[in-house]
Amino acid sequence: MNKQDFLNELNQRLELLDPRERRELLSDYQEHFRNGLAEGKSEEQIVFDLGTPEEIATDILSERDIKEEPVENDYYYVPRKNYNSDRSKGKQILIGVGLFFLDVCLIIPILISLWALSISLWVTVGACLVSPVLLGVGLIFGMGYEMYQLFVSIGLVGFGLMLLLVASLLFQFVKKATIRIIQWHKYAVKGGGENA
Q: Of these four, 19, 81, 107, 161, which has the most CB atoms within 10 Å of its CB?
């Protein structure tokens, strides 16, 4: 076990402590490593001299009358560098060109179709809900009136109310999809991390 593995496991096992006290303890153990390395010891030898993180954490928590929760699996955190965060301008341009062709061939036609469907649903909902008004306007201007027109108008209002839910859900879906695609493009070109 090296220094980083040791400190990560100790940090995890001391999670029940106050964060400030835990930082101080970890700082003390980092000092042990600095001193040991200055004396010419290896990290593994220093870990062997200190003991296991489990034993140390048990001692520290028992001194403070804190009951330790059992840890089923050993967990070691290994920090990894974000390789996407430092993309060169050349890579960004190549990715941008690739995304452009993907957009032209696939994404833009699908989004246009979804937006057109959403708008047409809203127009249909509006027309269905306005049908009684159009019937009333027709009566005011002296058009002929048949009883079936009233029932058709009421049926269209009911159909419009049912479509209202579908139109609303579709609009929310298309809006979120468009925003996520834009964010994905930004992430893909910039490389995520701090640059996105």
A: 107
